Amino acid sequence: MFGMRKRKAMLAADGVLPRDALDAAGKAEAGRFEALSAQVREAEGARAQAAGMPDFDAMFAGVEARVEVLRREAAEAGARGWLPGLLGSRPLWVLAPAGAMVMALALGWALLSGGEAAPDNTCFVDSYDADKGTILVDQDLDDPTQATVIWVVDEEEG
Amino acid sequence: MRNAGTRAIRTMMAGLVAAAFVAVPALPATSAAEPRAKVSVTVIHAKKGPPHLHDALKPMWDTLRQSFGDKFSYFEVLDTASRQVDAGSPVEVRLPNGQRFAAIYNGVTPEKGLLRINVEMDDFRTKVRIHDGGVFFQAGRKHEGGILVVAVRAALLKD
Q1: Residue B77: which domain range?
Q2: Measured between CA atoms, how close is B26 to chain A, in angstroms?
Q3: In chain A, whose CA is at the least distance from the CA of B143?
């Protein structure tokens, strides 16, 4: 895709790589990438502003900051050991009521959702009879949501 | 004298107990012993063609689609009847071809509490057992480029 020189120029344009690490051609290319990037940002910013879209740069900066915090917390938790890392700085007496609340919510959901369960459409056909036509029972006793269909098909005329 | 009185009372009590044993089983099985149920019969015209679902069928669309969705796309309600009935009472509709369709609730089974339903349509008869609130279909009679589907639902009345 891109050569190493172009890749370095892009990184330098983004400020990730120091400009001094590039040769003259690379510096020129980095300048072009910078100009292109500025044009794209300017155009995109105007479009976003016109459309009332949120500021992407600000949003992404927030995401980056949050990722960094999480990374630091994970590193600290790893240094403390797995159990303190799992519990964090929260003592057990704080976690116990939270756990009880989660259990209560789960139980409540199970009870309430049970009341709204689909009816059991299992149908046991004990007998059927007809003087004419064909009778066919279409059912799947393994699937209680599926309703049984008792087909009574007229005999073909002629 | 006292012994004779006691003997008379004992004899009378024994007679009452015996009469109770004989009389109770002899009582007719009244419909009051069976719970009442709400039975609904819906006559549906199903055919191929532009997709159409009658508003009244929306609550049972999942069930209808599972059973007939691969064959038909047009579902219109032609007639419906819904009644709260005692055991032995029919809920009837008249089909477009003039035939009578009756769903007769016949009480519940003692073991699992399944509702017994008999269906009568022309010369066709069937007996089924369904769960409380369950539905089943009778289908197949030809009608105006499609077929007639009759949905029968039955649910026990909660007092």
Answers
A1: 33-156
A2: 29
A3: A154
